[in-house]
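Researcher: Batch entry, complex prediction.
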Amino acid sequence: MFKKILFATSATRASDHAARVAFNIARAYHARLDIFHVLGVPSRGYSQVVVDIKTRERVDVDDDYMAWVQDEITTYYADYLKNGLDYDIHVAVGLPAREILRRARETEPDLILLGGSTEEEHDGVYKKTVAGTTLQKVARAARCPVLVVTRPAASFWGGISSITFGTDFSKASDKAFEFALKMALTLNCELHVFHALAITSLSSERLMSQDDIEQKIREKLRVIRARYEPRLKTLKQYTMEVWEGIPYMEIVKYARETHSDLIIMAHHSRKLETDDRAFGSNVEQVIVRAGCPVISINR
Amino acid sequence: MPEGTYCNKKPINTPEEVNFLLSDSSGTKYYEEMTRLDVDTELLVSTIEKTMKTRLKTWLEICAHCGMCADSCFLYQVNGKDPKQVPAYKIQSTLGEIVKRKGKVTNAFMRHAMEVAWAQCTCCNRCGMYCPHGIDTGIMFGYLRGLLYQQGFVPWELKIGAGMHRAYRAQMDVTDADFVETFEWMVEEYEDDYPGLTVPVDVEDADIFYTVNAREVKHYPEDLAEAAVLFHAAGENWTIASKGWEQTSLAMFAGDWAACKMQVESVYGAMERLKPKRMVGTECGHAHRATVIEGPYWAGRPDGRPPVESIHYVEWLAQALESGKLKIDPDKRIQEPVTLQDSCNYIRNHGLKKATRTIMQHIVAPGYFIEMSPNKEHNYCCGGGGGFNGIGVFRKQRNRALLTKRDQILATGAQLVIAPCHNCWDAIRDLEEEYEIGIRWSFLKPLIIKMLVVPDHMKPEE
Ligand code: SF4
Ligand code: SF4
Ligand code: SF4
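Model: Structure tokens for the complex:
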């Protein structure tokens, strides 16, 4: 399933949950783990000074410094790295999202793994200039699935027995479905196909009547069946479900109810609405709320 | 000791030499060696004889020491009106002395001159507008920097910067292949949102040949994509060059005249090869100065102009907005107090104030644009010009220099500052970091993209 995993880490506690999952997966699939750390943000015009993301100090980055950071990371993950794990540690300078994408372009991993939002750790000033979070940017542009773990509750990748796939019927969702199906087949587990009917209550002029809602739900269920069921039949166990509400909430609730250990969704909001970072897209909301790892797919 | 291993009179020319100098973190050994560097008086004198224009000699001689230039210099103001910061004093006590003493100056003198040339003048040319004799101290400092560079008395980062241009024909270690690759990568990343987006490489006879700042390639490649999106939206027939794509010149800040020539000739070479109708450069002030204003003289072009008409990004943008090639959604215009940084390099020194004001009219809802005071050609330097931003040893002085811009911005009450110049953008970013006044700052491209009426030919399918 996964042969090459790019694990982008801050090598601080903010990435610990993701680290657990990264090492779990690498071991489970005998994958090569590319541990990648962006050590700092370029600063000072053309000068060599960089603001270290971890210490917030201004440092002169030279080969010695890079080597030192590399050692630090090795020490930080020493326990995980034992026993013949196939790994590589790489350190770069730049804006995190950009450098992660650059690395992914070079190494073509089949999964990118990101930790939780490390925004709080970032230098305040640069955060303001570079609108949008690392997560948003990577999920939006990556050419492979992106697995994100933000909460400790989500930091386990064991025997996966149930996957929730959330669809909005977009093209990207079709791609995500392919991936979810393949995953369910390989892992021999349940797949729950889910769609949430967005009910925008307060702001909309007219509340949908309950009859309308139920009518819509039936329609969407038909769409799900037509679109996915023929393929789902190859699986031992699957369900299809449509709920109404605020989509990201419903998906998280549904995943909890089906005891899913993984959620797969398309990152379809391709254009970055940098101004309302607080809201973000559904998948981003799911990521910060879910009790299990979330994989986002955009192509 | 005459020449050091790190600090010497020899320019650096290769990636290996660049890396060697970089390995000396913060230039510690470099500056230490500089304290023992010999001054080559003979070379200094002969260089002055060969290169110092009559205009400069006259300026040195006719200065009446009237001090009318004092208040015009933001560094004088911001440093407690220290008489040592009066433009005339600064140049007389350095370049003036070298000439007067016929090059017989000491190592300590040269190191002091280095500090004055790079930490007490940003070559913003503001004082030149206020001198009754038209003496432009900024130009003289540019010349002094050349003499200092030749003698090896140049800040570490700028020796490296000039070396980058020699080794890569770019201000950073970005190769020609990196450049094209990165541009293509960015277009791939954006093409789902903007169908049909491409980056034409080495297309001959295009209407526009686009040049950039290597920093965009290295750290902010979105800027490349944004440029492509806007050219595409405007329906332009444009191209980039796989060689001669870098418009900036740290060599100019360093006073490395030979490297200035090499760099600008690589851009002119691309113009001659591709024969575009005109060149458009990115949102950078000093790049415009280097390639469009000073470049022709470095390259010895008889007509004093680049091989093809060359304009700044703000000129292209203003024209595209005026002609309707780019359309702005009026509801998406900026609706908060916003101010504009006038870059000395193309506003004061190249008169483009109208272009930027035209842009403001299009992108800011009426009543929200607030001018700084003073503004246009009278605007003060951002505080980090002429290489000041990047020099570690002069960081303290630079941070002090930012106070002028800080207070100018505060006086406008705006929280958004538009800075269509890399250097100014950096300085304003740094001033927020230093003084935390709660502002945001931006280039034009990302702002325009957000408010653009996307033409039908580039609407995404879904
Ligand atoms: S204003 Fe002109 S003449 Fe007067 S001191 Fe300054 S440079 Fe000299
Ligand atoms: S060019 Fe600018 S910084 Fe230099 S002395 Fe004149 S006013 Fe001051
Ligand atoms: S950095 Fe900007 S404001 Fe400062 S001298 Fe250069 S163009 Fe002028």
